[in-house]
Amino acid sequence: MCYEFWTYGKLSQSLGINKAHLRAVSPGSAPFRAVREGRQEAVVIDVEQGSNGEFTGVVIRAGGGLCRVGDGERVWSCRLRGRLKQGRRTARTLVVVGDRVRVCPDDPAADPPVGVVEEVLPRRNRVSRLGARRGGHVEQVLMANLDQVVAVQSVRDPVPQRGLVDRLLVAAERFGVAGVLVLNKCDLPEDPAQAARWAHYGGLGYTVLRTSVESGEGIAELGELLRDRISLLLGVSGVGKSSLLNALQPGLNLRVGDITEKTGLGRHTTTASELFPLAGGGYIADSPGIRGFDPWDVDPRDLGTYFPDFADDVAACRFRSCMHRDEPDCGVKAGVAEGRVPAWRYRAYLDLLRDLEERQERAGPQRNKP
Question: 300-363 in CATH: which number?
């Protein structure tokens, strides 16, 4: 069963929509989506209702062994059934934002209603990194069932972290989702050399958008980029992710923080990933700031395939198994020497290749599996 909830105003942050009426509609292909008709806005969530009251909902917030699940009408506070926690753990988090889950009501009359997650349904896709737990041998899924990863960088304050965007885009390529680069605080002075690097990503086919909360530049364009899509915002603390979301939808009132003098990075103001409906259509997940990112389930031997700027030169490699490092007659190294591949981009590849090989060696041949 699929339900529509029609309102006459902005969609609420928690999907607890006031002054809404319910009607059944035909099930859609997406687990949740937003539609508009004139001044009216609607959230549509596909909900499967069981005879015993069980239903299928979407996780909009998860953490600490609990999660909040939207059923299209209310947001439930849910715990995980004990059997889901049994057995060998291959992932740091069992339930993540964007997951479709089967819920059994426990106390539907409570405020908020209480339920138990009985099952996590198969994921359409996900974005994951190597988690810090157990020496980095556990998968940390950041979000499931999404359309695009939006990597947010600031042109300065804090200064861009070398190689981070490359790693986020590798994860997007690996898991089959679109990669987008947002350059925030573009009202501040920018290093010309760094500006040339951002332009390189655009030449590879990635969407690159400059934004400024202070001047308003790019905010409307960002809204269009997010419209009718399910997106995950990623970036270090202080780049302005929460500020951008507040500018897009002021009713969110997300906390924002300042840059610390000691580290040059921002303070964590977002403590857990959360999925927000956007009034213009679509959903966005804000996430805590990250300071490192090693993509999960990337074989070092395949890493070059996730760098689209290597594609033309790979064909010139002498060996099909070339990893573009120590091998003779390497087309990619020739491309770097002749200026077709930027040296900074090649260094980002080598840095990630080294990290992946070190993690794989520590994990052993059978442990670092998806």
Answer: 1.10.40.50
